[in-house]
Amino acid sequence: MGPAGTGKSTYCATMINHCQNIGRSVHLMNLDPAAEKFEYTPSIDIRDLITLEDVMEELQFGPNGGLIYCLEFLLNNMDWLEEELGEYEDDYLIIDCPGQIELYTHFPIMRRVCDCLQRMHFRICGVYLLESQFIEDNSKFFAGVMSAMSAMISLEIPHINVLSKMDLLGKVKKRELERYFDPDPLLLTDKANSSMSPKFHDLNKAIVQLIEDYNMVSFLPLNITDEDSITMIMSHVDNALQFEEDQEPKEPKDTFDE
């Protein structure tokens, strides 16, 4: 999951390709009713139930309102999803979710979807994607950290944060990058305060202190051209899911990975 434009579909395709290369049975599950193109054909697709295009045309909704309607329609028809999932109970599922951040921070919709999947006895992990280019604009990075934290709190599921598109990032020293992987409170505060009115300085300091005190947000770098980077991300997801522990004896455990 992640804001629009963070390359979630590319992430899904990368992880599917990696799973196939290591011999893991994997399927793509699409929960984005506005999706148009995929590198891999979804095995389960919300568009077989409802599409954003149809909702906008028939109900005259805008894109945002239509998206919310589609997902609420899914929640009211979870028997459809449960039946679809029954065919893949022993496989690893990578779920491509809508990119609109409001669904993870402003509305309880995705939280309810997660709750439903857990009641079906699926073990799930959320992956929040933030473009690595955000570190070139500290105010954007600060906002990205806050959105990631908000999504983590809202969903309350095993969760990892990923800085995507590291292959497109310019030359940055390793020591400087590490300040973003585990966000440096001084970096966040100083940069945020430099672009904001003094009346917000105390608020910024309090927010950053919260992030630091509870060690709530850290990021893993993803370079899709580097197999070691992809393997590292997958190992963190597997660890969050206790995936290897579930292999013997084999149980119907799948993943929620956007």
Automatic annotation (TrEMBL):
InterPro entries: Gpn, Gpn3, P-loop_NTPase. The keyword Transcription does not apply. Transmembrane segments: none annotated. One of its GO terms (molecular function) is GTP binding. Keywords: GTP-binding, Hydrolase, Nucleotide-binding. It comes from the Eukaryota. Binds to RNA polymerase II (RNAPII). Small GTPase required for proper nuclear import of RNA polymerase II and III (RNAPII and RNAPIII). May act at an RNAP assembly step prior to nuclear import. Belongs to the GPN-loop GTPase family. This is GPN-loop GTPase 3. It comes from Glomus cerebriforme.
